[in-house]
Write a structure and sequence with these properties.
This protein is α/β, with parallel strands linked by helices. The chain is 35% helix and 19% strand. It contains twelve helices and 17 strands. It is globular.
């Protein structure tokens, strides 16, 4: 997760190793190549059609830059201490957010720094429950949903209702989806509905080349998730897996009811934009937002009732119905975040709340204080915090 800037980092001079778990680095290879390709294509399109304010428009990094970054990758085991330097060691611990995701414990001369990363759910459809830290002198913890509890939705029932509603209209159900974990979760849920004959036998399309590549990672790294190899295979066979863009155009020629899962999850790019150009202004279309929609994204605009959407420099009228799934988040909610802290035996010297919008972080700050008595810091962007470490300590 959050690997997208690595090629830029290498491009501007980073020369050391980039360490991660095996699934994480497998996923990162897929993501970085895809990201670079999209950036190159969008820059070329912007220059051809003249809709960018940059003259010329340039990608943040190229495919060549991405390949260079990948050569720096080094796989590390999960759950084992790694000696980095004298008196400094690190451990990557399973945290259940997406396949390969971990929190990182860093011991520096006896002081333990814990970086939560994105923390997963206690009860997830595909991922196992997160491990918990037992000690933290300095803690950095995400606060994405620090201000709320996830709704208790019956996902299968809600998905069934949305599918039946869309079929009744004779329309297409379009689900913008993150290629990693969210797409696989949605595929699993629709596969279960199809097995139970709870939804009609309409075409189900997974139009995300990156999502298909991620499925291969699921097959490869069985111990990181709940699915068996047999289940993975059966689930995939239920869907038409679209690879080439010409297949996307073929899918759109079919005007009958269908389910389309396509990237990207916040409608910021990817194949879903092509579908929206075609289907957005049709009242029989249903758009299902199945993940967090950040401020400033097309997904957030749809969520907030936008009547038009700008795609590749052109505005499209929104006549489609828009629904949202609340219970599919791969991020822990407030209660789960607090529970993740429950096994820390000591009182941390400092707790930093990161990866959250201001309101969410502030509410979570108060909740941690009330629950554990710990004072928390919400760092300002670009601020520099000093953490005293006695370098004369040895393990």
């Amino acid at each position: 997760d959050h690997t997208g800037y690595l090629p830029r980092l290498v491009k501007i001079g980073f020369k050391k190793t980039i360490q991660g778990t095996h699934p994480t680095l497998d996923i990162a290879e897929i993501i970085l190549r895809d990201s670079a390709k999209i950036q190159e294509e969008e820059a070329a399109k912007a220059n051809r059609e003249g809709y960018s304010k940059h003259k010329p428009a340039k990608p943040l990094y190229s495919l060549k830059d991405a390949e260079r970054a990948i050569t720096h990758f080094r796989t590390v085991p999960e759950g084992e201490w790694l000696n980095l330097f004298e008196g400094i060691r690190a451990r990557f611990q399973y945290n259940g957010h997406i396949i390969g995701a971990t929190f990182i414990e860093l011991d520096i001369y006896g002081k333990r720094l814990v970086f939560s990363g994105d923390i997963g759910r206690k009860q997830d459809i595909l991922m196992k429950p997160p491990k918990k830290p037992e000690q933290a002198d300095v803690l950095f913890i995400e606060s994405t949903y620090g201000d709320r509890l996830h709704a208790e939705e019956d996902l299968e029932t809600k998905l069934r209702e949305i599918v039946l509603h869309t079929v009744e209209k004779g329309g297409t159900l379009i689900i913008p989806s993150f290629a990693v974990e969210r797409t696989q979760t949605l595929m699993y849920l629709f596969w279960q509905l199809r097995k139970k004959n709870a939804i009609p036998d309409i075409p189900m399309i997974m139009d995300s080349p990156m999502g298909a590549d991620v499925l291969n990672v699921f097959h490869k790294h069985r111990k990181w998730h709940k699915l068996s190899i047999e289940d993975c295979t059966k689930m995939c066979n239920t869907f038409r897996m679209v690879k080439a863009f010409k297949e996307t155009l073929e899918v759109m020629k079919n005007r009958g009811p269908k389910i389309v899962i396509a990237g990207s999850g916040m409608v910021s790019g990817g194949r879903v934009l092509t579908y929206l150009q075609q289907y957005l202004d049709r009242s029989e279309t249903t758009i299902l937002l199945a993940g967090f929609q950040a401020e400033g994204t097309r997904g957030r605009a749809l969520l907030e009732g936008a009547t038009e959407l700008k795609i590749y420099g052109k505005y499209y009228t929104v006549k489609a119905e828009v629904f949202e799934l609340h219970a599919l988040s791969a991020h822990a909610d407030q209660a789960e975040l607090l529970d993740w802290l429950s096994e820390i035996r000591n009182t941390p010297e400092k707790v930093y709340l990161v990866h959250g919008e201001p309101h969410s972080a502030d509410v979570f700050r108060v909740k941690i204080k009330d629950t554990y008595g710990w004072d928390c810091i919400i760092p300002e962007l670009y601020s520099i915090e000093e953490i005293p470490i006695a370098t004369n300590k040895k393990e």
